[in-house]
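Trying the structure run again after the queue cleared.
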Amino acid sequence: MSSKGGGTALTRRNYRLASDMDKPRSTGIVNEKLLSDYLHHVFPSTKQGPTLASLRKPLGFQDLPAHLEKLLSEDTPTEDGQAVDGRLGPQPVVLDHTSGFEGLLFVDDDLLGVIGHSNFSSIRATTCVYKGKWAYEVLISSQGLMQIGWCTLSCRFNQEEGVGDTPDSYAYDGNRVRKWNVTTTNYGKVSVNTDRVLCVLRNGQSLGTAFTNIKMGPGIAYFPAISLSFKESVAFNFGSRPLRYPSQLINPPAADLMKAHKLLGYIKNVLSTAIDTQEGLVEKDCAVWRLHGEPTVLVTLAHIFNHFAPLMCKVYLVEDVLMNFLLGILEGGGSVDEHPLIQQLLDLFWLLMEDHEVNECLKQLMMSLLRAYRFSPIIPDLGFQIHYLRLTTAILRHEKSRKYLLSNLTFDVLRSVVFFYIKTPLRVKEAGLEELIPTTWWPTHFDKEGKDELEPKDESADERLRRRAYERGCQRLKKRIEVVEELQVQILRLLLNNKDKSTGEASRYIFLNKFRKFLQENASNRGHPTALCPPEYMVCFLHRLITAVRGCWDEGHRKSLSRAYVPPQLFYNGKVDYFDLQRLGGLLSHLKKTLKDDLASKANIIIDPAEIQATSMDDLDEDDESGAAQRLPGAVAMGGALARPSWLSSPTLGRANRFLSTAAVSLMTPRRPLSQPEKVKVRTLAVEQRTEEDIEGSYGNDGLLLGRPLEEPDQPNADKSLLEIVDGIVMMYNLSVHQQLGKMVVVSDDVHEYAVALKDTEEKIARCPARRADILEELQKSQKVFAEKLNHLSRRLAWINATIYSKEKMLDIYWLLCVCIRTIEHADNTGSLFAFTPEFYLNVAMNAYSALKNYFSPANGMDELPGVFECISDLLSLLSDIKDSLMQALASYVCYPQSLRAVERIPEEQRVAMMKNLLAPYEQRPWAQTNWILVRLWRGCGFGYRYTRLPHLLKTKPEDANLPSLQKPCPSLLLQRHMAELLSMDKDMAASFLNSVLNQLNWAFSEFIGMIQEIQQAAERPERNFVDTRQLKVCATCFDLSVSLLRVLEMTVTLVPEIFLDWSRPSAELLLRRLAQLLNQVLNRVTAEKNLFDRVVNLRLPGLESVDHYPILVAVTGILVRILVDGDRQGFSFCPQPTSEEDLCPICYAHPISAIFKPCSHKSCKACINQHLMNNKDCFFCKATITGVEDYSKPASS
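Done. Tokens:
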């Protein structure tokens, strides 16, 4: 802003107001006297002088610049512009993120905030000091291990040693209340979340002298520095922002600060004064002020902003002056809509400030709000968070400001979407939870396996009262958190506005492209944790975004939100970038080549040849060899049946076979001739290249829905932009949300563990003899510790349940599950184009169900979700022939009774097809998961197989009680019947399946025996070498596989005994023989007293807890019992008939001689020679080549 001479010709946006020099003495705006009174009222002098209006010098616009300069210079302190002695380095001071750090750290965009991402990370500032008194402020937002202080350039830190651990560094640790300089001593007070610690080189006024005799001299200078452990978070203030606790050692910019406050006072005077030509100056409430374009008011404000605008580019002044002023406007309460003054002020900013000035001002204002929200202390009513969110909402209601912030700040500088996060207090006192939830409660009734009983029958009246009081406290907390959540949703609804097109592109499309870029960064940097948005932020952001999308969906008056899905054309038309994420059919580049004819015939899409040519030479060679010969031209595809596309048999993309459903094969033949419109050439668009037309489309352009297959409806089920946001929500859940949901369950597990310990301690106190006062005292101390810990954890759990595991959050995850299933359903209808579906949709469908089952229950039961198990049935019906991917989904679903019933409700034809896939031979496939599914279908029916956990492990706490393997047995008799029918009717399939099971059992048990031999040898060495943890884990896995394979054999023997006992079957005798040999091997290795197995079990090594006699012996016993029982029913007996030794087979000594070899005439039983001839043609005895085998019967004795 500039002024010319003494006039007031001010240029802003081609806006010009004439000065008094260009007009007669009558101003043309208001009369001279009224204008003078108005200007004196707006710009009152602070000097003592005449107060009567008649004695004041008239003031007009021509005199205003000089008058304003005079007022601003009054009482303004002078600032020394010379460099301060005692410091070296740039100004402003920030953290040195280029070379001054050790370990993994996440540094905020302002280079002042830092989060640790490794064991013990260190970082220093860019400026050092060597004499004088210096201080800086640190805002602590976590309560773990951190050492804050000073270090020299010569200090070398690592993952074990940080600030204070070297001779030339000094640190304070508020968590452990100690000071560090190589050695450590007690010092200070405990620091808590949101504390600010003043680090002073010589001493701290509040904590006393920290260190004396500090090393000083030439070449020695000290940098502010910090070392912090994983996930610890702080923010530094080196004086660029207002201090929470002002210090004489840090001087604020006093001159600029005073000017800014004066100018803000002048603006307030303008807002609270109205000019009435009849009544003169009228005082009014500034809250109702409107920008009506009065020339006098605008020219007055223009003079003020000529000085005010440059000051608002400085972060200190924005935070101390402007932000506090705007927050004061909202202090009166009420909705944000009731305070339009902020919108009017933002209009003034855009009118009277240059672009670069208002841009910098808005940027610093939002950064200050973000910082304040992130580090604000948690109080019972969440007042600080609500205050900052209300102001953020008010600013974003201004259309032009919102679009600037969306385009230039959101998801660029604010990558961590902090505004949508509600942090969990680590200490309940800081959040006031003791007042909000005065009564605590935790489960005190457990079932036989140690799990909480949902509805204890013998709950006492006192327990019931405590539980209800606790629940009421939880409800109070939830209502307060919901206020914050609603403000966060309002912010997202503003960002999703698609009606504000008057000033350019609508907010929603700017947000959509930024959101997609945000997802790309997180998907591409999953191996680099410092580049990722923290998962705890992602969880909150996902729930707020789902709520906001639902609101926008309802406003569109489209189809029911419960039937929401993502149309399949988004996956192949190139309008949405999936950042090279895996598709169900393999890599996108390969699918574009091999399915380009299907895209042309079914979706009227032609892939840009430039994209196909850009693929690697390996892919091109593969296409020439395996695909070109099989792919039919488009003209041929229009008539007759389609050949099997090359992507189904590609040698390098065998993954595609896993995902081919029966429906896909049947749909590859067109149902009716296609009336083809003109085909459209497409290529993948980068996020930055897209426009609103690319998303929503225009006349003759379907936008995101380009390439609609005939199976899809003409009208989309929502705005096209919302469909892409829903797609992004699914991707976000897959990136990190599901993993974080699982991590937060640990608090509930801790409550359960301490509750069990407390109950056990109370029972011991009740049994303790009165004469053992010493034991009683120790038990009472333990009881007190457990009770205090439970009081803390129960209140913290209430917070977590309200913010993460509430019923509303559960419904969000359920909605996400339905979206994935409906999307897969519609994609499956497209036939071979189903291969373009991103793989994460199937992952989210499985993980969302797992989360609903394991993380939200029992607080919010799945039974309350409408149609959840019908959705699972639909998914399994679609994927009944997708082999390996189905195994993963099925393995999750068969562990729980409700989802297993959903599996049983799919059509019988698909159930049988699914079981047939499970019974395929184990060779050349990942068989362990298939075997696991069969075991779960049987568990609860086998001999000694009704346990959830192994009996010898019941007293130990599992690592994760929600694991599928630790769920109660829920066998499926229906699927067992299908298995029995298939094995009984198809003799070849039964033989191949059982042979593969026996082969894998032989391998698994042999590997297990070999490993325990190595473990035993290592344990017996005098040097006591430790066994590798990985080796122990592999050993336990081989044992578990052996047991599960034995259980599958038990299941088969029980359901279809004739496979082994009906010797009219060609393979029965051989299968029974192999089974008996393996069982004999197992028994020999396991049952011998003080043998290898026994010695390893008695070592009780960590990692081998599951290795025990019980699980494997009961499985073998179950097989033998069933063979004996069913053998008696069929007249089969293991008891040998009396015979002489000469008549027994010389190989096995178990059967009579029944075969003679040609030409050597040696003899054995048929079983031995048949098994031998499968691998060898030489005689057992003479090594002659056997040319034939004939039946042999002993001649009758004379």
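Confidence is low (pLDDT under 50) at residues 1-28, 616-677. Worth checking whether this holds up in the mutant runs.
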